[in-house]
Design brief:
It comes from Nocardia neocaledoniensis. The protein is about 35% helix and about 15% strand. It is α/β, with parallel strands linked by helices. The longest helix is centred in the middle third of the chain and has 20 residues, at about 150-170. The structure holds flavin mononucleotide.
Length: about 375
């Protein structure tokens, strides 16, 4: 793919504009999407993780959203190689990551994560910890395989998110992203398929947002007013790609409003293909609708620069290069504010620099072997 001078000027103009997320000014519109990499033994991000992120910041990524990192609750995860966002050694490792990204000219937020019922008891890092979720229903729909969370459990998890957010600000991160997407704990509350509670945390869509809204409010209460709190959410679930939280803009608005009221500063609307309209009768994608309905900055994502969606990455498949014209058209109309790039940035740490400089002939298709190393 060669690029004409006017195409290059347009790309640079659209993607190089700074953008404000609450008190943070991100130097451009390109974010790195959060991607679990499992290169942090004992939950500690080390030297290789630092240079992995710093390399991308140095090559034009304005905002790094880190891989999902577990909050300090023993049931939060299921791997000893996923970084944790609690514990002295773990946070010292993260502080270095943030410092290196800043030195490279980027900004960085950790993605705070609790996997809920995706966990199976017996798995690391805390083998005895039960799987917990809104109703104890397994990801395959089996009832009774985990613990339906008590009020004390809810309070513990809310506290763990708040503590992690406070730590993020203390050790030099620029904000936090709360992982409310893809069928993990917060999303298990959002979705009627996994939330059968009959108390104040279950029932209609607004009641199902209550847990996440309380987390947002608790986070907001412990960080500075200007510290950005981003919420990532999705319609699709890992266990059900066709699941939807909202079938109409009105339903979406009802879900988002309490989250905005609780203090979300920006939404990261996770879709698998950014060019697909979310609802009938409009070309807007999920991030576009989220911005229109909330007035807040939004981040889009999904197969940017590639032609096939990311689930294929997990079956070892690659993806061909795709044009970003449609993305630029949408950004020119301010449909959304930022774009997160996943696999294309895994494949090539210099993806952003190459796109911004028109060196697109140097881009290579996504090859799933990129997952094997942290380069
Ligand atoms: C290897 C891999 C790990 C991922 N891990 C996470 C994660 O920890 N948190 C998350 O919200 N999304 C995760 N995702 C989804 C990405 O953030 C992104 O939404 C998805 O890859 C689509 O973007 P892409 O088409 O540009 O790759 C992961 C994706 C990949 C390929």
């Amino acid at each position: 793919m060669t690029v004409t001078t006017s195409e290059l000027a347009r790309t640079a103009e659209i993607l190089s504009r700074p953008v404000a997320l609450n008190g943070l000014t991100v130097p451009n519109r390109i974010a790195m999407a959060p991607m679990t990499r499992m290169f942090s033994p004992n939950g500690v991000p080390g030297e290789d993780v630092r240079s992995y992120y710093a390399r991308r910041a140095a090559a034009g990524v304005g905002l790094i959203v880190t891989e999902g990192t577990y909050v300090g609750h023993e049931s939060a995860g299921n791997s000893d190689r996923v970084p944790r966002f609690h514990g002295e050694e773990q946070l010292a490792g993260w502080a270095q990551v943030a410092a290196d990204v800043h030195a490279a000219g980027g900004t960085i937020v950790p993605q705070l994560w609790h996997i809920g019922m995706v966990r199976n008891q017996g798995e690391p890092p805390f083998a005895d910890a039960p799987a917990v979720g809104p109703s104890g229903i397994g990801v395959d729909g089996t009832e009774g395989v985990g613990k339906a969370m008590t009020q004390a459990d809810l309070d513990d998890v809310i506290g763990a998110f708040a503590e992690a957010a406070a730590a993020a600000e203390r050790i030099g991160f620029d904000g936090v992203e709360l992982h409310g997407a893809h069928g993990y704990l917060l999303d298990q509350f959002f979705w009627a398929g996994s939330n059968r509670r009959e108390d104040a945390y279950g029932g209609d869509p607004v009641a199902r947002t209550r847990f996440a809204a309380e987390i947002v409010a608790a986070v907001r209460a412990v960080v500075s007013p200007e510290f950005p709190v981003i919420l990532r959410y999705s319609q699709w679930k890992q266990q059900d790609y066709r699941a939807r939280l909202a079938d109409t803009p009105q339903e979406l608005e009802a879900i988002l409003a309490p989250l905005v009221a609780a203090g979300v500063d920006a939404f990261h609307a996770s879709t698998r293909r950014y060019w697909l309209p979310e609802f009938d009768g409009s070309d807007l994608n999920l991030a576009g609708w989220t911005k229109k309905l909330t007035g807040l900055p939004t981040i889009t994502v999904g197969s940017v620069g590639l032609d096939g969606d990311f689930l294929r990455a997990f079956t070892g498949e690659g993806a061909e290069l795709g044009s970003i014209d449609n993305l630029l058209d949408r950004m020119e109309r301010d449909e959304f504010d930022m774009v997160a790039v996943g696999r294309a940035l895994l494949q090539d740490p210099e993806w952003a620099a190459k796109v911004l400089a028109g060196r697109t002939d140097e881009l290579k298709p996504y090859d799933a072997t990129a997952l094997k190393t942290l380069s």
